[in-house]
Amino acid sequence: MIEFESIGIIHSPFRTLTGMPIQPAGAAGVPGTVEVNAEYRAGLQDLDGFSHVILLYHFHGSRGFDLQVVPFMDTQPRGVFATRAPKRPNPLGLSVVRLDRIEDGMMHILDVDVLDGTPLLDIKPYVPAFDAQGAVRTGWIESARRSVAEHQADDRFV
Ligand SMILES: C[S@@+](CC[C@H](N)C(=O)[O-])C[C@H]1O[C@@H](n2cnc3c(N)ncnc32)[C@H](O)[C@@H]1O
């Protein structure tokens, strides 16, 4: 058993799962805030030097999982670990968002694809030299007919 406690809460304009963006790339300019619990705020020192941050969070609105899912951007079943579906054995989400500013322990972010009230588990700076890869293959997503910005969430994972 591994236990985590949330270190804060992610706030966004999205109160229901359906109709939301499915990735930050489909949520350009959508504002949100990250309210870091008071006891962790000292850990935000120096983060304002980074334009983007990686948020790791609990898909708290997800119950259960399937090992094969039809992803939002596809019409046929895929292994859940080949997708970003929110219903997973360990319901962890990862979003790279833009960091606008930090004020009074509150991070103001943009490009948010997260449900309002989502429990935050960790924050890391996004560093292209660490995180961006050059020659990549993107599996079934290569053949997705429409771009991520043209898809919104529906009720398939509710
Ligand atoms: C496809 S997931 C991708 C999230 C993240 N960028 C990732 O790759 O892990 C995004 C969808 O998850 C759902 N979602 C977002 N926040 C959630 C939460 N707290 N609990 C359950 N589902 C959530 C919404 O339907 C949203 O459109």
Description of the structure:
- The protein has 158 residues and is mainly beta.
- It has one helix and eight strands; from the N terminus they run ββββββββα.
- β6 and β7 form a beta hairpin.
- The longest helix has 4 residues, at 128-131.
- The model has no long low-confidence stretch (mean pLDDT 96).
- Residues 17, 20, 22-23, 59-62, 72, 84, 86, 93-95, 113-115, 118, 153 line the site of S-adenosylmethionine.
- Strand line-up across the major sheet: 1-2-7-6-3-8
Structural domain tally: 1
CATH architectural type: Beta Barrel
The kinds of small molecule bound in this structure are: S-adenosylmethionine
**Cα distance, first to last residue?**
26 Å
The CATH topology name reads Elongation Factor Tu (Ef-tu), domain 3
List its traits.
globular, single chain, mainly beta, six-stranded antiparallel β-barrel, 158 residues, 1 helix, binds S-adenosylmethionine, Elongation Factor Tu (Ef-tu), domain 3
Summarize the structure.
The chain is built from one helix and eight strands, in the order ββββββββα. It is mainly beta.
List the helices and strands and how they pair.
Layout: E1 8-11, E2 31-36, E3 52-58, E4 68-69, E5 78-79, E6 92-103, E7 106-110, E8 118-125, H1 128-131
The structure holds S-adenosylmethionine.
Organism: Acidihalobacter aeolianus
GO molecular function, one term: methyltransferase activity
Domain TsaA-like: 4-135
